[in-house]
Amino acid sequence: LERPLAGSPDAARVGALASTLGATVLAGVTEPEPHDAFRNEIVAWGPSGAEIGVFEKVHRVPFGEYVPWRGFFSHLASLAAVPRDAIAGHGSGLMRTPAAPVGILVSFEVFFAARGRSAVRAGARLLVVPTNTSSYSGDQMPSQEVAADRVQAVEEGRDLVQAAPTGYSAFVTNSGAVLERSGLSVQAVLRREVTLRSGATLYERLGDLPVLVLAAGALGAALLLARRAGRAGPEESCKGHRHRGSTTGLRSQGCMVIPAGPGSGVESGSGGGPRGPGPVGLIATPGPATDAPDEGSGPVRRDRVRLQHMSGSRGWACLLGTVA
User: What's the pTM value of the predicted model, to 2 decimals?
Assistant: First the structure.
């Protein structure tokens, strides 16, 4: 509107429609305010034709309905497409009408779970989404809006009605099923009975808290495992075997850890693995018996030892076997 709603021909016209139908009528209205501002409202008229309620949109679209830090961004780009800023509303979104206590989610607000939850907690038995997607020429945003309708309906356990002069008008059940949907930006009248529901879903009671707690627990567990892995010594890389031997011999089924690389007695590329820069680890697995020299004590027979290539930046070799 170019002028306030009260006393205007537009208000009289909608009031007369509500009186003729003997029904409650909700209409989206933008009212001008001084200092380049406006209000985005949902106004209700009762069966008598009188105005019975107003709800002002709480979640405004940034850079669509208002420009945050307008003074700053005006130096970076033209803001002619958004010449005025919407005034943010307040309240739960509950509107008590002769038809039912309804929860109002104005367009963009359907994407915010807290808006539906606050209306239902205040007593809403039906969710209503008045919207206008005229800023979007395709169906990408209108389709996302219907998807958000379905999520809100399931989260709050309420049927939902969306009305759009552009975009999609739709009926959605509390289970998320779309019972009927208009064509995109098609003038149509949809009629269907909806159920006025009560009670509270688990999500309505607890909100995002269970999800946040589970996410924090998973993150904490991952950090703890990462710290333990970072403190793990070479012996722990031997698949749980402890270092019970020494460089001069191995006890039965013991584990000896020695560095791989030049001068260590275990060279990169041993055991059939590819040669390459840097240390290459070798890990022993069950295989044919072999003899291997021990430090200063001559040949020592190790049973069931086969060296197998294993790449790794630390470069350790693990030998599992028995002393002959």
Answer: 0.68
